[in-house]
Design brief:
Layout lengths: L7 E8 L18 H7 L9 E11 L6 H14 L5 E5 L5 H11 E2 L5 E4 L12 H13 L12 E5 L2 E4 L4 E2 L8 E2 L7 E3 L3 E3 L14 E2 L7 E5 L6 H8 L6 E6 L9 H13 L2 E6 L12 H8 L3 E2 L5 H12 L5 H8 L13
The structure holds aspartic acid (ASP).
Aspartic acid (ASP) binds next to loops.
Length: about 350
């Protein structure tokens, strides 16, 4: 079994509030590197493990995240996968749930922890939440069970006191420190005096499965939110967009839509053109059940695919990943209905 001092954690800094360290005299932003980290969090020296830091050449606000950035993160993880025991990704909070979802699909058969965290207040501010978030994330990334295996070999988000499966999360608060929730799956761990792991919920790669990073994503997708009074010509024009390959349709309640013939016609036309439409609910918790009400059934008949209890972030990035792999429409629909990375609970309806 590895000794604590042999464990190597790679911190990947992409940007976001956590690293916006201002020089109090000049007001200029400091470079975020190993030295500035140690200056602001001297406690890091008390960890026995080895900690390395990689920074995105040009750190970004996470509103600027895009598939090319996810590919870069995956490349960094893949290039250091054999050498390192765990990864901590520092990221802005705004699009963190999208990144966590994308990485969960791009890192197939992941056998090592990838813990994503950030903060609402920058390191260097007196009341920063970044320090606790980072220290606990490192501890989780390095944690081993009695057999010396990683405690959480998953892509997760750690924020405030909760460790959540990344592809189940949503940002719910623009201000509070408790900024993320996983409504449809309990937390994987809770950090109080002790870090208590819900081991029965944690995914493990199938033994002998080889880690396989994926780099190709296709973003010919759109999210369309239904609302009372939505106009037919607006929906139709969105659906006529050339190159469109998939729509994440945010419906009401358990997957319902207005009973308008034009809507079902539009969806049928999309389906005939080969465009995939996935039904996710606008509600924060619960699942799409398309056989429950007549409106849901109508969508099913129009070729719409259920997204079960997955978040829109998870379905969007799953689509990007599947579309990037040029599989046939049937295969794509089959895989959409399969739980690939713990992102959804599939019902046998
Ligand atoms: N706008 C910032 C970002 O997402 C907010 C944050 O880091 O919390 O990069």
């Amino acid at each position: 079994m590895k000794q604590a001092e042999d464990i190597r954690i790679l911190i990947i800094y992409t940007g976001g509030t956590i690293g916006m360290i201002e020089n109090p005299e000049t007001g200029a932003l400091e470079n975020f590197d190993r030295n500035s980290l140690l200056r602001h969090i001297p406690e890091l020296k008390r960890f026995q493990m080895q900690i390395e830091v990689e920074t995105f050449g040009h750190p970004i606000d996470s509103s600027d995240m895009e598939p090319a950035c996810w590919e870069r993160i995956v490349r960094l993880i893949a290039d250091n996968y054999d050498r390192c025991d765990g990864f901590v990704v520092l990221h802005g909070t705004d699009t963190m749930a999208y990144t966590a979802s994308a990485l969960s699909f791009m890192l197939e058969n992941l056998g090592k922890p990838v813990v994503i965290t950030g903060s609402q207040l920058p390191l260097g501010k007196l009341r920063t939440d970044g320090k606790e978030n980072l220290l606990t994330s490192i501890e989780i990334a390095a944690a081993r069970d009695a057999d010396g295996l990683p405690m959480v070999p998953e892509v997760c988000i750690f924020f405030e006191s909760r460790l959540m499966r990344g592809n189940r999360t949503t940002k719910i608060n623009a201000e509070g420190f408790n900024a993320f929730r996983s409504y449809n799956l309990p937390s994987l761990a809770h950090a109080g005096i002790h870090i208590r792991y819900a081991t029965h919920l944690i995914r493990r790669p199938t033994p002998d499965a080889v880690f396989k990073p994926h780099f190709r994503l296709d973003n010919h997708v759109i999210i369309l939110t239904l609302f009372p009074g939505i106009r037919s010509e607006f929906v139709e024009s969105v659906c006529r967009i050339e190159g469109l390959k998939a729509v994440v349709l945010k419906t009401f309640g358990s997957g319902n839509a207005p009973q308008r013939p034009w809507l079902f016609d539009t969806l049928r036309r999309l389906s005939r053109r080969g465009v995939i439409v996935v039904n996710v609910t606008q509600c924060s918790a619960g699942s799409v059940e398309m056989r429950h009400y007549r409106t849901g059934l109508g969508l099913l008949k129009a070729g719409v695919v259920p997204g079960y209890d997955a978040t829109p972030e998870a379905i969007l990035t799953k689509l990007m990943m599947l579309l990037g792999h040029n599989c046939s429409r049937d295969e794509l629909i089959r895989r959409l209905g399969t739980d690939m990375a713990g992102e959804m609970t599939v019902e046998n309806d």
